[in-house]
């Protein structure tokens, strides 16, 4: 992870879990695609679904029982929260914005980890269907690489459905065109330190009925242990009642 900027873990999900996640990703995408079109932001967003939580399905269960959580916490040497949770279908013929070289964090902080990406393969990732490409070692260099440099030195993250890749959010990467006949689906998550702002107000976004089924891990990841007090009464409380728990720093 330190040298290359990424590490792959094999066979993290069962076939049944992969099948259910794929089914729920398609439902989530349909809902989000309607909103993208309605609000006039559908251009270059084909096959992308953002903030795919709250339906009380396998996607929420994934957070409640997140694989590799101890590895992620060790990376940060402490607690983490979920900054975003998306999904990509990478369908043949589409050219979403994710096919451009990018990083998933703007701040450059090589000696203090701020965020970590998780890529969950829901289909086999192959050269033909557009396996994600990364430029190894680019997380050590502040300047973004040119397209020529990236394309000539990039590594394709091939693997099997159920594999998970963790990578430094400063690692330059992009999706590749899908030249197969089917989608290349994946979950894309980003984790950060509890003092950071997630891309979605999870406590307001997640329906109350879904909140009722959150595990302690789910509550931690969705920021329920790192909330700002709303008033003086919430602020002046015994430590056990703090909205921003002591272990979140």
Q: What's the short version?
A:
This protein is of the alpha+beta class and 249 residues long. Helix content is 26%, strand content 16%. The strands form 2 sheets. The protein has a 6-stranded antiparallel β-sheet, covered by helices on one side.
General description of the model:
- This protein has about 250 residues and is of the alpha+beta class.
- The chain has a single domain, classed as Jelly Rolls (Sandwich).
- The protein is built from eight helices and nine strands.
- The chain has helices at about 15-40, 60-65, 70-75, 145-155, 200-205, 210, 215-220, 230-235; strands at about 5-10, 50, 80-90, 115-120, 135, 155, 165-170, 175, 185-190.
- The strands form two sheets. The chain has a six-stranded antiparallel β-sheet, with helices on one face.
- It starts with 5 loop residues before the first strand and ends in a 14-residue tail after the last helix.
- The model has no long low-confidence stretch (mean pLDDT about 95).
**CATH class (first level) name:** Mainly Beta
What CATH calls the topology is Jelly Rolls
Largest sheet: 6 strands, antiparallel
What's the average pLDDT? 96
Query: What's the overall geometry?
Result: globular
CATH architecture classification: Sandwich
Topology, please?
Blueprint (H helix, E strand, L loop, with lengths): L5 E4 L5 H24 L9 E3 L7 H7 L4 H8 L4 E8 L26 E7 L11 E2 L12 H7 L1 E2 L7 E5 L4 E2 L11 E7 L9 H4 L2 H4 L4 H6 L10 H4 L14
Antiparallel strand pairs: 1-7, 2-3, 3-9, 4-7, 4-9, 5-6, 5-8
